[in-house]
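task queued by scheduler; priority normal; single chain, no ligands, no partner chains; default sampling; output format set to structure tokens
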Amino acid sequence: MPAPSSAQFPAGALPASGGFSVTWDSAPTPMLDRAAARFDARTAILAGGARAGASGAAIPVRVHVGDDPNVLTVQAKEGYTLSVGANGVVLNADGPTGVLRGFATLAQLIRAGASGPELAFATISDAPRFPWRGMMIDTSRHFMSVETVKRQIDAMELVKLNVLHFHLSDGTGFRVESRVLPSLTSKGSHDEYYTQAQLRDLVAYAADRGVRVVPEFDVPGHALAILLARPDLAAQHPVDPNPKNKNNAALDPTVPGTLELIKKLYAEMGAIFPDQYFHAGGDEVSPKQWTTNPKIVAYMHEHGFATPQALQAAFTADVEKILASQGKIMVGWDEVSEAPIPKNVVVEAWRSSKFISSATAEGHPVIVAVGYYLDLLQSAGQHYLVDPYDPSSVGVTREQANKMLAKGGDPVLINAFLNDPPPPPLNDAQKKLVLGGETPLWAELVTDETLDARFWPRSAAIAERFWSPAAVRDVDDMYRRLATVDTELTALGLQSEVNTRRMMARLAPEDPDAVQTLVSAIVPIRNYRLNRYSGAHGDHLDEIAEIASPDPMASIRFNALAARYAAGDHSVAPELRAQLQAWKDNDAAYTKVATSRGLVEAVPVSHDVATLATLGLNALDGNAGASDAGARAVLDSNLAQLALSTDITAAFGAANTPVAGVMIAFAPGVKTLLGK
């Protein structure tokens, strides 16, 4: 994972207990030497400690590398071919980055064999579908350590993601040491920031792994942290340092000092981040920030700006000129495209897939984030079916929009999400402008401790959508492979499992296993409903819903096995029965340990899990009709909540929030067993 463009797997394998021996057709660069060392270390872990020179012969890996003057650009050559046979491995890479991609695939061919670790025979020809395959880390809302960010970069290399979109400033915090404008750091960072030396090291670390780092410094909205240092540039005076919504504060685009600050800031940051692309934000500028300031309104009248969007378009054009003069290409969120702006501004579509269509129709390159927002807590399967070329895949219908308006939703925002009628398919010229996509993770409910689990393994599934052919869309097969990839990523350094286990032990030190068993049966509520739940319950970030995964593998497997059972494959009955019995029996253990805040709220959920497990056991025993009405009501309620969770409009005026902010994930499998 990602699935290669073309792959054949003939019978046979090489014993891998002796590790690998890499040789080069031409002298490798230091970067390639380091890549080979990482490959050696990683394959030793995946093969159970095998190393070259250990018992058994090392597998020879011969590498040929083509030239690539565009390394670490959007034009980088990432294609490769890989042949594994009786005589060893031959890797032909179009460029140095292709070596990294080939090594990642080669590591995934290691498997456990009857006589120990082995490397499967394969013939692979591979290249990415899209050149921009990113993930976005938000370190403004919750600061993430350098070590945590590096872990994500390591995992990105392993699944062939190649852009780290680093969101470094927002209303909550400005996270970079600035020497040109030191007050941005001293007043806007809250003493949590990266030094310039740390960031240069991080950029080099990412470059070694074929990952480009694109920084984002958001203007003119989301500017509170900047305005704490420069209140004279605020659209609203005085600047409230602790507003109810820290995202609203905006810069005043009509005063010369605003562009002067941006020019100095971007020049300094552009020197730290050498990538050609630079993200300037541009999202969610509250019109009231400008329309309730008489001086800004007068400026708009004087210069012929009929709407705030027109004023922002002019501001965007000025920012683009600044970045162009500094050798950068501007990226902005899709709000920047709501009025005419320079054609070379890259538009990142996030609110509705229709912006893929409208922006490319205007000639803009596009990055697709809509459909891949990990903080929505949607399942990997839901993200997996969103294609970057599909302008109709994500958005709300007119009927949904009307419901949202009736619940008090913002008409401007709802109109941006409206995708009714959906645009026609992209033509070939528009498709050429789609650079690829990103998985954003906004960090309101994410900390250093939970970042790994919120990014992974879902980012691996989305990485396949960005890399592999469009026809690779089998969700069941994706989950089958994702479970293995998740295990490999954990073995190679991700801390999702260890951090989650620590959270469980902190809440239930006497029996964290009881928490783990319950968590295997549940998912957190989705589409920002958990944000509302958390806000109403003290904003604690260490409760059962934060521990729960959007993709609990035990429940996913149970639902798949239940479908096989219903289709006539009764060989899976013992595994189904064992899982149901474990969930049923866990209720007593969980109730005993769930005495702390964060766990006690989920005691009713544990009871319901036991109830549904009993329903499933009855069905396996042929007694489906013996279930009482109360148990059936529990099942129907959970099925309804799961159905609601696929609808993004549930975030607007959501009512009847499930207990503890979680839902029972294996309810569909129980329904299948009951024949409902």
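post-processing summary
- The longest strand covers residues 434-441.
- Residues 8 and 185 are 54 Å apart (CA to CA).
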